[in-house]
Write a structure and sequence with these properties.
By secondary structure, the protein is of the alpha/beta class. The chain is built from 9 helices and 12 strands.
């Protein structure tokens, strides 16, 4: 179902670091760009919510006209892409994991339309650009928080699908936890679903029964389990600490604004071309950040996390990118 305009959602609007890539309100585009987004899930889903929020921010600045379709079935995705391209939209944004061939075929048929797609693969000329949520850096830092918080030395991790985009965040989290706690062990499970809070909750309960006292909530539902059992959790992509007070230790946040603003600027300037926009999700570009509830975290852990964060921002520490499927410790 196609919907237009901005919708009031219960989402935390995180401050994004100032960057030369962002378009200021005082420098709004002379002519707004027509942008359409296609989502396979509801805009409330955490990953998609970041894209939706960034596009609404650009819309509110007056830089773009924004329409979107949510809950688009895979079988309908190509048709919706073509409808938007035929309507004269200048930039189409979406996620095409599992739909790569169809999406790239559409882009090839509309070379004058700019496409910016979440993808596991590379860009293709002249007009198919890709992005992803490269928040492995704040994920590493959130892992340090978890490693310093666990008392049982067992951390549970519930993910959606074991694809590179998820794997790299979970592996970075695990490395961060081991940096402060070499004795920590992990229980890992994938739901094979992007949005199934009840299933995520049950998986978390099983891990807690096995001794986990800190949970990595890559999916919605895990933090609900933590609340019910009086355990702690670490968030991913969005900050849900307001919904789970005294439960969320830290969250690795994704800010899509630098990516969206760069693409809009390129379309406006007539310079948009096939490129990998992944770097704009890095902390140095303001695309990722860490939020901590310091009242729940040991002071020595907070200090060490901040030291590593400074080194990341200064280019003195690089978090490893590991796309391999993470597994439970034996």
């Amino acid at each position: 179902m196609k919907r237009t305009g901005s919708i009031s959602r219960r989402l935390m609007i995180a401050a994004v670091a100032a960057s030369g890539l962002a378009l200021s309100a005082g420098a709004a585009l002379a002519q707004s760009i027509k942008v359409a987004a296609i989502y396979t899930l509801p805009v409330e889903q955490q990953w998609i919510s970041r894209i939706h929020q960034a596009l609404n921010t650009a819309k509110d600045r007056g830089d773009i006209e924004y329409v979107f379709s949510e809950n688009v079935a895979n079988t309908d995705y190509e048709r919706v892409m073509r409808e938007y391209a035929e309507s004269g939209v200048q930039l189409i944004v979406g996620e095409v994991f599992g739909l790569e061939r169809a999406a790239r075929k559409v882009a090839k048929d509309y070379p004058e339309t700019a496409f910016l797609m979440g993808s596991s693969f590379g860009p293709v000329g002249p007009n198919f650009s890709v992005f992803d949520n490269w928040i492995h850096e704040p994920s590493y830092l959130s892992g340090m928080v978890a490693g310093g918080a666990t008392k049982t030395n067992i951390i549970g991790m519930v993910g959606g699908y074991a694809i590179p985009e998820v794997n790299r965040l979970m592996n970075a989290f695990m490395e961060g936890a081991r940096e402060v706690n070499p004795d920590v062990r992990f229980l890992v499970n994938f739901l094979d679903s992007w949005y199934d809070p009840p299933k995520a909750k049950e998986s978390a309960f099983a891990m807690m029964d096995a001794g986990a006292d800190v949970m990595f909530a890559e999916r919605f539902g895990v933090s609900d389990a933590a609340v019910e059992r009086g355990m702690k959790a670490v968030g991913n992509v969005v900050d849900t600490s307001g919904d789970y007070p005294s439960t969320i230790l830290a969250s690795a946040l994704w800010h899509m604004e630098p990516t969206i603003d760069k693409a809009i600027a390129n379309v406006a300037a007539g310079t948009f071309q096939a490129a990998d926009y992944g770097q704009y999700s890095f902390m140095g570009f303001g695309g990722g950040s860490l939020v901590m509830d310091e009242s729940l975290i040991p002071a020595e852990t907070v200090t060490k996390v901040k030291e590593y964060q400074s080194e990341i921002m200064e280019g003195l520490f690089r978090v490893n990118v590991n796309d391999e499927r993470p597994v439970s410790d034996k």
